[in-house]
Design goal:
The complex is a heterodimer of chains A (434) and B (320).
Chain A lengths: L6 E11 L4 E10 L2 E6 L12 E4 L4 E4 L1 E6 L12 H10 L2 E6 L10 H14 L3 E6 L13 H6 L2 E5 L8 H11 L5 E4 L4 H4 L4 E2 L2 H6 L3 E2 L2 H17 L2 E4 L5 H12 L4 E5 L1 H5 L21 H12 L5 E2 L8 H4 L16 H10 L5 H8 L1 H6 L15 E11 L18 E11 L2 E5 L3
Parallel strand pairs in A: 1-4, 1-5, 6-7, 7-8, 8-9, 9-10, 10-13, 11-12, 13-14, 14-15
Antiparallel strand pairs in A: 1-2, 2-3, 5-16, 16-17, 17-18
Chain B lengths: L23 H18 L13 E6 L4 H13 L3 E6 L8 H13 L4 E6 L4 H6 L5 E7 L5 H15 L6 E5 L6 H12 L3 E5 L15 E3 L2 H4 L5 E4 L7 H5 L3 H8 L3 H4 L7 E3 L12 H4 L7 H24 L4
Parallel strand pairs in B: 1-2, 1-3, 3-4, 5-6, 5-8, 6-7, 8-9
Helix pairs in contact in B: 1-5, 1-12, 2-12, 5-6, 5-12
The chains are: A alpha/beta (434), B alpha/beta (320).
Pfam families (chain A): Amidohydro_3, DHOase
Family (chain A): Belongs to the metallo-dependent hydrolases superfamily. DHOase family. Class I DHOase subfamily.
Protein name (chain A): Dihydroorotase
Chain lengths: 434, 320
């Protein structure tokens, strides 16, 4: 591991910066925690003495990934994932910054909770850890939290995380009040009374399996409602993990009308469908549920045309006790920190998106949405970087993952491209040891 | 949905977890064998020694007197040791306990495990963990394969064949594992299946399973050969799926007037227990010319004997 004050020269790289469109061979110099310089002829006269040299031998060098939706179990359910285990998983996945959901025990709805997270992150000192604060106290959907004080304490945005803000009144107030601090409200778009009791996407598969279905309309209706509330209240609204074609259409039209709305999706919504539930495979139980093939394609199109702004891992660790159950009883969620990058690259390898555009969805775009000065290669920018092999084929091996939980539906999936080195603030915090 | 391959050739399945995936020929194998057991059950001495020394456990996580008794009689009439285990659910809320239960039973060297559970897929979860054969005695809203088979046997014995028949399945299809097993079975055997229910009780895209959907008994029962009524779960009714039992009976309860549009020889079935005056009128239910409800109960034992016989042949060293 390199010294934090050192200067490091990354040579013979394919430099990729989705923010500026840079894609060329060259070198990059970090100095301490910052990017000092970069370019095709940076070391034309050789690297001066005293600078550590990392020869990337033509591999890619890009901004580190910013994962805007990560759930961990600390505090409250440390057996699932801690800030330490999730940080290790994140850097192994090429992620240099994570944003934690507030659905812990206790809920992150007070300044002290944010301070706790910051302290643990400083102790672990791997990935950069940011946090959402709850939009409503206890994520109970009624009273809005102290958004001003929480913002000052570091909350990057407000959300009830895995729960929808179901009350229209609470959502209106949250959107309206958050304007004061120019903070995003992030919604889990699922109308709870319509989704209640549901286990998977409503349709033929659910009917065959005898599982209670969740109609797609549970998501669509909530998005339609919230867009109305956004028009009424102003503010900035972001929909997390959209999963249906209609959701994408609604957001596309709202953006065209000039509304301040954005959205993200997660890899399982463009890489899997409801058929992956198979014979009651609880690893494929997620919220919102996996949809059909038409929706999956619409999500890919939404990413390609930029309607969907970002891709987040939606990392939701669940231990065996929560997953080795009958499907109805099993908890929702998949881990995603270590599959976010290769699954995003699937879009590139399949021709759905150019490389820089796909990288933007996991770097500069989420950073911009949350007002974080990350996700780009620029002089003076934080030296958060990922070196990766774009083409190497490998198979997902969940047993080797650093996350404490192993609930991934992608076990043994053939993927292409993997991180080789992750750099946070100029320090190499992880290296692939094949 | 029938488990991993088994060495017998005519019925190559280790478990019976559902009807989906069974071929017409496999279904016929079971029904033909069950026909023989019907005759055995009608003899003064009903017991054979086929499964002497074998152990069968009925593991019921959900109450069911008639299905459990039927399986118990089936096992005992074949000479097996049958043990009933039940659970009120409180001790098996945790999945580890469900799997632990399976592992514990497995260590006791069972020959067959008959399982009922309130959750769809729970029986498969158990089947994946044990070495013995597993028979699904009803899992959630998923399947109840022996009910489907006994219904098929009842129809075949009364009407000669299933091929080409019009079968109307009426009532709470949304929550019915019986309906799903019957749909798969009847389709496999060449019958034409209709589902008749208010829209609130029709599962999403059930037409993709190869059924016609009707919301009116008048069109749904027209020219039907078989009218299969399902139990309406009254606890689910208030203000949810249908407004009241009174309204439900008015539109969907089977009485002679509604039955009149079916074929003159049409038979009436019900998996029981019946809600008289809710989904079926007592007059129809008790009409022995039309109603096959008691035949279904009788044939259930024979079908379960046939299934136990077939699934244990491999370990008995008997080929089909």
């Amino acid at each position: 591991m390199s010294n934090a004050n050192a200067r490091v020269a990354y040579r013979n790289a394919r430099l990729l910066d989705p923010a500026s469109g840079l894609d060329q061979r060259g070198d990059l110099l970090t100095e301490g925690a910052k990017i000092a310089d970069f370019g095709p002829s940076l070391f034309a006269d050789g690297v001066p003495e005293g600078i550590e040299v990392v020869d990337l031998q033509g591999q890619c060098l890009a901004p580190g990934l910013v994962d805007m939706r990560v759930l961990i179990g600390e505090p409250g359910e440390e057996e699932k994932d801690t800030i330490k285990s999730a940080s290790r998983a994140a850097v192994a996945g090429g992620i240099t910054a994570v944003v934690l959901l507030p659905n812990t025990d206790p809920v992150t709805d007070e300044v002290a909770s944010l301070e706790f997270i910051a302290r643990r992150a400083r102790e672990v000192r791997l990935v950069k850890v940011f946090a959402y604060a709850a939009a409503t106290r206890g994520t109970d959907g009624n009273e809005i939290t102290e958004m001003g004080l929480l913002s000052r304490a570091g909350a990057v945005a407000f959300t009830d995380g895995t729960k929808a803000i179901a009350s229209a009144k609470a959502m209106r107030r949250a959107l309206s009040y958050a304007r004061t601090f120019d903070k995003l409200i992030v919604q889990h778009p699922e109308e709870p009374s319509l989704a209640s009791g549901g286990m998977m996407n409503s349709g033929e598969r659910a009917t065959r399996l005898g599982l209670v279905g969740i109609p797609r309309e549970a998501e669509i209706i909530m998005i339609e409602r919230d867009l109305r509330l956004l028009e009424l209240s102003g503010g900035r609204l972001h929909f997390a993990h959209v999963s249906t074609g209609e959701s994408v259409d609604l957001i596309r039209r709202a953006k065209a009308r000039g509304l301040k709305v954005t959205c993200d999706t997660a890899p399982h919504y463009f890489a899997l469908t409801e058929t992956d539930v198979g014979d009651y495979r609880t690893f494929a139980k997620v919220s919102p549920p996996l949809r059909g093939e038409m929706d999956r394609r619409a999500i890919v199109e939404g990413l390609a045309d930029g309607t969907i702004d970002a891709i987040a891992s939606d990392h939701t660790p669940q231990d065996q006790d929560q997953k080795r159950l009958p499907f109805a009883q099993a908890a929702c969620g998949v881990i995603g920190l270590e599959t976010l990058f290769p699954l995003t690259l699937e879009l590139v390898h399949k021709g759905a998106m150019p490389l820089l555009k796909a990288l933007a969805c996991v770097t500069v775009k989420p950073a911009e949405l949350l007002g974080l000065p990350l996700g780009r290669i620029a002089k003076g920018a934080p030296a958060d970087l990922i070196a990766f092999d774009l083409d190497v084929p490998w198979k997902v091996d969940v047993a080797a993952f650093k996350s404490k939980s192993k609930n991934s539906p992608f076990e043994d999936r053939p993927v292409q491209g993997r991180p080789l080195r992750t750099v946070v603030d100029g320090r190499t915090v992880w290296q692939f040891e094949g | 949905m029938t488990g991993s391959p088994h060495s017998t050739t005519v019925f190559p399945h280790r478990h019976l977890l559902g009807i989906e995936g069974l071929t017409a020929s496999e279904i016929t194998t079971i029904l033909d064998l069950a026909d023989g057991y019907v005759e055995q059950n009608r003899q003064p001495s009903k017991k054979s020694s086929l499964l002497d020394g074998r152990t069968i456990v009925n593991l019921f996580f959900e109450n069911s007197t008639r299905t459990r008794t039927s399986f118990e009689l089936a096992g005992k009439r074949l000479g097996a040791d049958v043990i009933n285990m039940s659970s009120d659910g409180s001790s098996v809320k945790k999945g580890e306990t469900l799997i632990d239960t399976a592992m514990t039973l497995n260590a006791m060297h069972l020959d067959a495990l008959v399982v009922r559970h309130a959750d769809s897929g729970a029986v498969k979860l158990l089947a994946d963990k044990v070495n013995c054969s597993v028979i699904n005695a009803g899992d959630g809203h998923h399947e109840h394969p022996t009910q489907g088979l006994l219904d098929a046997l009842a129809i075949r014995r009364r009407l000669g064949s299933l091929d080409g028949l019009i079968v109307a399945i009426c009532g709470d299809i949304l929550h019915s594992r019986v309906a799903r097993s019957n749909i798969h079975l009847l389709n496999a055997m060449g019958a034409r299946v209709r589902c008749v229910a208010p829209p609130t009780l029709i599962p999403s895209q059930i037409d993709r399973l190869g059924v016609e959907i009707h919301h009116s008994m008048a069109t749904g029962l027209k020219d039907a050969d078989v009218v299969m009524m399902l139990r309406l779960q009254t606890e689910r009714m208030s203000g949810q799926y249908v407004p009241s039992t009174r309204e439900y009976f008015y539109f969907y309860g089977l009485d002679y007037e509604k039955l009149a549009v079916a074929k003159p020889h049409a038979v009436v079935m019900h998996p029981g227990p019946m809600n008289r005056g809710v989904e079926i009128d007592s007059e129809v239910a008790d009409d022995l010319k039309r109603s096959m409800i008691l035949d279904q109960v009788e044939l259930g034992v024979a079908v379960r004997m046939a299934v136990l016989d077939l699934l244990t042949r491999d370990r008995r060293g008997t080929d089909v």
